[in-house]
Design a protein that fits this description.
β4 and β5 form a beta hairpin. The chain folds into three domains: about 30 residues; about 260 residues, no CATH class; about 100 residues, no CATH class. The protein is of the alpha+beta class. It contains ten helices and six strands; from the N terminus they run ααααααββββββαααα.
Amino acid sequence: METHDGTASFHTVINQRQLKKMKIPFRINFIKKLDWYIIVKFLGTYFFAIVLILSIAVVFDINENIDKFVANKAPLKAIIFDYYLNFIPYFANLFSSLFVFIAVIFFTSKLAENSEIIAMFSCGMSFKRLMRPYMISAAIIALITYGLGAYIIPEGSQTRLDFESKYRRKKKVDYARNIQLEVDTGVIAYIERFENYNKTGYRFSLDKFVDKKMVSHMTARSITYDTIGGQKYRWKAKDYTIREFTDLNEKISSGSRLDTTIVMEPSDFLITRNQQETMTSPELKAYINKQKQRGFANIKEFEIEYHKRIAMSFASFILTTIGLALSSRKTKGGMGLHLGIGLGLSFSYILFQTVSSTFAVNGNMPPIIAVWIPNLLYTAIAVYLYIKAPK
């Protein structure tokens, strides 16, 4: 807007300057120096707690398993690089919620004890504004936790579990019984017993249905998975009989050996202990969908693992809120009471998560509900403590 003499209106200039002052600093200084101070303190204490507690855990694990390593002649190189190098990130991610709680309780109690939080509130800062750097830190931890658990740790878990099977537990699934699964639309395969050492199944049958009517029935004394040549789904049937049904006729053919393609492989039904930990999240999702289509029921542990990785990431926000609300008030006893309550809540969260997972494995509860029950309960606790926190 201009006046009659062509000069800009005084109020327009003032409004433009006010807009600039409102917008530009908001973009540049969204994270203030105080926010950086809290974020650095939070993440520094978090990683320090990981190093400290895992150092103790490694010492106890060595003390517990040293006899087994020596008895099974485990090489020192394998112990360090195959086991402990993968042991540390696995357990760091598993107990991430505990480390978040310890970090928040520890350094926030120090801030409250030094009257730094009182000074922040005295300057007009609200509790909601104080939560901003905490939530940013929780988001960073959540992204790291999910990225490690979903994509990086599963690759190392395979090496760690192979080491444990060879030098520690020596327990590996070598057979499966009463296998029944849908290998294709309307095609049902059954194996009475499968031996992994020779990739052979015994008392095999394959039934094909069209419009709920059986059109062929194949039986074989044994069937062996062909691993030569690198081709998938190649099987060799021995002493087989095939019966094909038409409207009023039946055709029977038999032989001593038949090379055939069946869309299944031993990994579909030979589930090893903790196999779900060795799969990335995309692999888990694809495996779960494939097994559901085949009618394979023993996949609850895989579904729990898939949903747990997401739930554990969101737990960082919930436990950070609880920890901040508990420790932001200055008390005469110092951080001891806060730390005790925080440890109790964090251990109860981990315990409750383990117990709720068994509801899905041993009961009829859907895995996604069982995994998210602890988060929903502790979200209610977080909301209550947020309301009661000093404002």
